[in-house]
Amino acid sequence: MSPEPPRLGVLASGTGTILSAVLDAGLATAAVILDRPCAAADLATAAGVPVEIVERESYGPGFDRDAYTHRVIDSLKRHQIDVIAMAGFGTILAPEVFSVYPGRILNTHPALLPAFKGWHAVRDTLVAGVKVAGCTVHLATEVVDEGPILAQEAVPVLPGDTEDSLHERIKVVERRLYPATIRLFLQTLQGAAP
Ligand code: GRF
Q1: 57-104, pLDDT tens digit by residue?
Q2: Ligand 1 center to 114 CA (angstroms)
């Protein structure tokens, strides 16, 4: 008898187009957890996936990252999540989540890591004047935008690109590469289960 497939949870915040690609790829998603009300909630609900909004109480200096992370972990546990895919999640989580889910948190970043880490990766790519951009799927660790790289793909930076046009060209690739990499990761994990 083959072991149960790992239960995938997606963390999102924004427009949810990467989440949508994950769902459209047919990846069984046990829950979508959001840090704010956003379009991703409607997408998940329409797909019949349980949604939980673990809303941030603050965005200012008083934000208690440890307490917030604890609430997210509680939610992940309630949904019996084994593997987390971050899909544009707008909150940096505290170290606790990486010890509860060691080597089990995936992220997609809109740049060719280790270049252009951080929130403004696409803008920084344009400002640097490089001619090649891309995306990176990696295992997330305590240090933002670090961790072992699982997949990467390049796209050209074209004359006249804006942050939006370049980001959209990158996201076209992310919407294919991220679900494919998540699938492979889940299969590998399931295959390695005792
Ligand atoms: C993606 O480019 C992802 O790499 C970054 O956030 C973006 C999310 O896009 N971390 P969307 O909100 O799902 O369209």
Answers
A1: 899 999 999 999 999 999 999 999 999 999 999 999 999 999 999 999
A2: 17
Which two structure tokens, joined as six digits, stand for 96? Answer: 């606790």
**Nearest-5° Cα angle at 76, 17 to 153:** 35
- CB-CB contact of 170 with 155 (8 Å): yes
106: enclosing H helix or E strand: strand 105-109
Residue ranges around ligand 1 (CB below 6 Å): 14-19, 87-88, 108-110, 171, 174
Active site residues: 109
CA distances from 86 to 71, 113, 127, 138, 176 (A): 16, 16, 26, 10, 15
Closest CA to 182 of 6, 2, 3: 6
3-state helix, strand, coil in the chain (%, to 5): 40, 20, 40
The best mutation among 89, 174, 175 to test binding of ligand 1, ranked by most ligand atoms within 8 Å of the C-beta, falls on 174
